[in-house]
Amino acid sequence: MIQSIAKSPTSSGVDSPLVTRHSSLAPLVEFREVSKWYGPVIGVNEVSFELGAGITGLLGANGAGKTTLIKLLAGQLRPSLGEVSVCGVRAWSAAAKSHVGYCPDVDAFYEEMSGRAFVRTMARLHGFDRRAAQERTEAALAEVGMLDRADRRLRGYSKGMRQRIKLAQALVHDPDIIVVDEPLNGIDPVGRRELMELFRSLTSRGKTLLVSSHILDEMDTLADRVLFMGRGRLLASGTLKEIRDMLDNYPLHVRINSDRARDLASRIVHWELVRGVEVRGTDELWLQVHRPSEFFPRFTNLVVDEGFEIERLQTTDASAGAIFDYVMKEAAHF
Amino acid sequence: MAIELLGYRGWRGDLRSPWMACWPIVRSGLSLVLRRKIFWVLLALGLLNFLFTFAIIYIKAQLAVENPGFAKFLDSVKVTGTGEAYLDFMFAQGTVTMLLLAFAGSQLIGSDYHQGGLSFYLSRRMERRHYVSAKLLAIEAIVLLITTVPALVLYVEYGLLSNSLDYFRENPRILFGILGYGLIMAVVLSLLLAAIASWVPRAVPLVMTWSCIFILLPIVGEHMRNIRDNRIWRLLSLWRDLRTLGKWCFGSLNLERDEDRLAYWAAWIVPAVCLICLIVLVRKVRAVEVVR
Q1: Is the pLDDT of residue B115 over 90?
Q2: ipTM above 0.90, yes or no
Q3: What digits encode the pLDDT tens for the residues A276-287?
Q4: Surface-to-core class of residue A17, CB atoms within 10 Å of its CB (0-12 exposed, 13-18 middle, 19+ buried)
């Protein structure tokens, strides 16, 4: 199991057990054994995955290869080996770029331009004629909530406003796939919440989002599935729940508060799914469980049948941050 | 706000060719240069030279018939309507352009590399060759607007103010010279600036590198010519090489003169410099720098 988490897909094309496919929908983005190196430095190493609808989080430490992967997808880099395809065409072709909107992490604008002029210029670069560029600019600015502030010069914008303008230029050509690199960096909590709501509204319209972030806590609520990267490799892929279920070496920690904690402990201590039980005080129980997807239904049945009153049921290491730590520990073995 | 509530409809139409993206980049580049007050000084210098020459042509046309002596006096400021006169005018305008490009290069090209703006361009529906072509066109537009367009205006003015329109028929080589010299300057300066700015994107190092090429190298070449007594060292001056090619365009090469005999060498060196610059530029158009 450990090996299956840390191993990238083999050259025979067999997927890692952690890679899950979205049913029925053809992948919008496909990476097939992609490697990219810069001289002696390898940026991405034999990465294979598919992106479908919804929000996918791209998580990893600095230098893990996230930006390289994003730029391969956005068609700004060509892979040294393997193939990157977007909607069935090679990612670095102009046709593929029609489907991708890229919001980079860099904050580089022509500072003397207004936000509106900048987005309109990006629309013209994309191939819209003057009238269409104007219409699309207004639509994109409305979507990111910058219509009333778009005539100010970019140099006078706050960090959050600059981020919105970057998003607007990524949305101006109505792409199917939106790639966002570190969108929440430097944004205040209110701004983050607004951006996350914007991302969700985009996916509700059928867009596919790939969001790269260091802020793991927010990936818990934002991302439908995640890709963990480390040292250029894809370490794990799937929903957080799926990945957590597979981390057998790291049983899930569950905290339970019940008035009959000791009774409850005595009933479940012999279960094969329960690796450890610790009673703290009179009403608190700490469990370590394997295969949570099997444990919880069985636990629920027990609670209902025996009439236990559960005041609190909390998993303490099922967050993106905790899973990321476990995955990185496993990856260190290889 | 949900986009559906605002009544925006999806766009249904044909996107233009990626080559059409060149025009917004050229326009943005021109506005970047024209917007900065610091560049107005240099632009004013070029404009002054043009207006002075324009006025001299007009005055000469008005007074030449009544006062031939005065007309001869005006000829001493080299407003003669010959190829040499236009060559000298474009050379002076080109010098102003060269100064302008030294300072504008970091704005036009360097900032794309230094601050990461290249990602925005390459994320559009365009490829490297479109981006490179557009940036070169932006620089060429500046060069042509300062050198070739004013020279063409002066050519038309001289012809219209001459005794008859035979001036145009009798001097077709001048038109070829203006366009040819302007094109050579535009292409060479654009490639050189784009290549240098991609390697040294910041303003001060860019100006210093530019100065080395156009000031230091000619001085070194001149000293080496005196030391070795070999005129071939003059070829180190790229600006002089461009002028020699310009002379060829105007048909005013005089192979009995020392510097004009280097024209054949200049005709090889200038394209070689352009090729090297193009290779450097294409290699540098990458979105991610190699991790050091």
Answers
A1: no
A2: no
A3: 899 888 889 999
A4: middle
Nearest chain B Cα distance for residue A272, angstroms: 49
Query: pLDDT averaged over chain A?
Result: 84
Quick: pLDDT tens for A142-164: 989 899 999 999 888 988 899 99
B251 touches chain A (CB under 8 A): no
The answer as to whether A220 is a domain residue is yes
- Domain of A44 in residue numbering reads as 29-244
The answer to whether the beta carbons of residues A4 and A16 sit under 8 Å apart is yes
Percent of chain B beyond pLDDT 90? 39
Distance from CA of B110 to the nearest CA of A (A): 12
- In Å, how far are A165, B69, B131, B168 from B57, measured between CA atoms? 52, 15, 41, 16
The full set of domain ranges for chain B reads 24-286
Any A CB within 8 A of B127 CB: yes
Single-letter residue type at A278: E
Nearest to A114 by CA among A142, A137, A130, A143: A137
| Residue B93 reports pLDDT greater than 90 | yes
The answer to the question of residue A325 being in a domain is: no
Beta carbons of A174 and B291 less than 8 Å apart? no
What's this model's pTM, rounded to 2 decimal places? 0.78
- What is the domain-level CATH number for residue A278? 3.30.70.100
User: Among positive and negative, which fits the CA dihedral A190, A193, A195, A201?
Assistant: negative
Looking at the partner chain, which of B18, B120, B288 has a beta carbon nearest the beta carbon of A122? B120
